[in-house]
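User: I'm preparing a small set of examples for a lab meeting where we compare how different chains pack in three dimensions. I only have the primary sequence for this one, and I'd like the structure in token form so I can line it up with the others. Please keep the answer compact; I'll paste it straight into my notes.
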Amino acid sequence: MSFSVEGEYFETCSCDVSCPCIWLGPADREECDLLLAWNVTSGAKDGVDLTGLSAILAVKSPKQMTDGGWKVALYLDDKATPEQSDALGAIFSGGAGGHLAALAPLIGEVAGIAPAPITFNRSSGSISASIEGVVSMSAEELVGMDGSGAGVITNPMLGVVPTPFKQGRAGDVSYSGHWAASFSGTNSFIAPFAYSG
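Assistant: Understood. Below is the structure token output for the 197-residue chain.
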């Protein structure tokens, strides 16, 4: 089995900017609510083309993310065929190996895996993803002190995407699937992603 996919990624979480979890510190609140969104711009798994498809992962973790026990729900693009959906699920759950497999041991409960009508938009320094009635997430890149572009973080101790990634600030974020969460003006990381395995 093999895969190689790349595209656009961003996450929003309930921590203040910048989230301490990537430095193995505790969350700013008693637990962390985290939403992760990927849009595949090119790539395939075992010959199954995944170009143009998206996935969103909702996470609720304890204050110290590295303690594990994450509760997660994975949403897979409903435009996918059954074969594409299986491939997306394997990659973005970490089941297919690669970079995301390192996070799989932190998951304590899979609340659900379901198809969903995912909308993903990227425009200059803005990015957003949504599932009507379930997920609404958006972010803006924060411009660095020289004014030339977003501030960048490289080589943290924990991350969903290989670095570097851009520091952002979340807009209004809400999740009302297997649990409820909402926050605004908090942390976001934005980056291209490339996974293989």
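A couple of notes for your slides: The mean pLDDT is 95. The chain has one domain: 3-189.

User: Perfect, thanks.
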